Amino acid sequence: MSDALTELEAGIRADLARIAHPGAAWLEPKMGPDGKPALDVLIVGAGQSGVAIGFGLMRSRVSNILLLDKAAEGMEGPWLTYARMPTLRSPKDYTGPDLDIPSLTYQSWHEARFGKESWQGLGLIEREHWADYLLWLRRTIALPVRNGCELLKIAPAADGLLAALVTSADGVETLHARKIVLATGQEGMGGWMIPEPLRDLPAGSVATVADEIDFENLRGKRVAVIGAGASAFDNAATALEAGAAEVHLLCRRAQIQVIQPYRWLTFRGFLRHLSDLDDAWRWRFMRTILEMREGFPQATYDRCARHANFTLHEGAPIEAACATGKGIELHTPRGTIAADFVICGTGIDMNFAGRGELSNFAGNIATWTDRYLPPSNERNARLGRFPYLADDYAFTERVPGKTPWISDVHLFAIASTMSFGPSGSSINAMTTAVPKLVHGLTRGLFRADVARHWASLSAYDVPQAVVTRQARSSGELR
Predict the structure, then answer these.
(1) In this predicted structure, what is the pLDDT of residue 475?
(2) pLDDT 10s digits, 157-182
(3) pTM to 2 decimals?
(4) Assign residue 232 a region: left if phi > 0, alpha if psi is -120 to 50, beta otherwise?
(5) How far apart are CA 448 and CA 177, in angstroms?
(6) Closest CA to 437 of 180, 261, 64
(7) What spatial distance separates the first Cα and last Cα of the chain, rounded to whole Å?
(8) Residues 19-33: what's their mean pLDDT?
(9) For 216-258, what is each residue's pLDDT tens digit?
(10) What is the rounded distance in angstroms from the CA atom of residue 103 to the CA atom of residue 96?
(11) CA–CA separation, 380 vs 362, rounded Å?
């Protein structure tokens, strides 16, 4: 480790010590049915969101926590797997997992590792460096993380606890916790969509942007990318750079979307208070933003456009698809496109029943369709399938009383978007979204223990001072 990083870490310890107020522990371990102390909070996912949530809880003196991630250490999140852009798209000065601690920002880490001149000359953050920073951050603040550990199922347990069935190389075990946070990023409540016309194509000829794709195997082949968001362009560019013979990007819109609504909404008022609005306003804002979809920056487009064998097709939704002896034919209103391989960048749809970990309560998760009927000109069936969350990011019941325990299961992922705006999948929202979640978690933990706190106050008899009364002589006035 460099001297600069060592010095930075010493400064971080000093910073955290200075703001460690109040320092008093306020939670007592609750025993699980297995006779072991239950966790106060189990966080599923140790990517950028999980790290920030764990840090927020530790700063709130909730230290009996554990983070799980099915990936190997350092491979959490998309950064070293299916993120196929050279850099993050967020401006380099956006803060997030640091939770407003200057010495924990990416800038502080970058300057300590590469120097201040490197930071001054930096355009955007390399995604590999972001992954390194997140791993450094988690180690520096000493978060308890178990990698290679996957959540299989959540169930209610005795005494108001939750049981999490997890699997790892050591086998299957049950962890008990008072609360569970699903910090599961993109896929946590559903899966990546493959358009219906493509679902019957031969196995191995269609993938989503999140799949493991052997791009070297696409050298000399014709590739079609469905969708026109930033991830679709990233995959098209990766195929072009791997030597694909042709790459066609199919956009269903008559004109491709170049406006990035997430740049508009990056101000504290919106990020902090969208969730305080009524359902009509929340729906109106987020429907408009999500129907626009995220735009792509100039560099992302240029990465594709510099190749002569790249073609952008606007106004070209897939109407039908079939396999032929010469490959795949994609039929659009603009004509037929021939391909050997198809990559779908068409987003994620909610599918609670498809998630094994939710199987005990998937059918009773309230959605936006269950709670709000928008005006006819504002309806969107896909967005109506998003979960309708409580003000602490907890699931709510479709049928009250059927699964009341799900109020202790909290969702911090892309599926939180309709209820809270950008939160569990966005760097720019972390400094407002994570404290809101942590506040909700600590509020629930405190309320559940209110009788114990009252008993503690009632029994509190620790004097703060000793009063010495002087003896008086018999001649003094009384």
Answers:
(1) 61
(2) 999 999 999 999 999 999 999 999 99
(3) 0.95
(4) alpha
(5) 13
(6) 180
(7) 74
(8) 93
(9) 999 999 999 999 999 999 999 999 999 999 999 999 999 998 9
(10) 12
(11) 21
Q: Any alpha helices (H) in 293-353, and if so which ranges? A: 298-305
Distance CA 334, CA 250 (A): 10
Q: Which of 55-59, 323-327, 379-383, 399-403 has the lowest mean pLDDT?
A: 323-327
307: three-class secondary structure by DSSP: coil
How much of the chain is in helix, strand and coil states, percent to nearest 5?
A: 40, 20, 40
Q: What is the model's pLDDT at position 424?
A: 79
Sequence-separated (6 or more) residues with CB below 8 Å from residue 258: 295, 296
Pairing, β 341-344 against β 206-208: parallel
For the cut 80, the answer to whether the pLDDT of residue 268 exceeds it is yes
Would you state the pLDDT for residue 464? 93
What does the alpha-carbon distance between residue 106 and residue 430 come to, in Å, rounded to a whole number?
14
C-alpha span between 345 and 210 (Å, rounded): 9
Which of 84, 89, 345 lies closest to 237 in space, CA to CA? 84
3-state secondary structure 340-378: CEEEECCCEEECHHHCHHHCCCHHHECEHHHHCCCCHHH
Would you state the structure tokens that stand for residue 17, as one six-digit string?
A: 């010590």
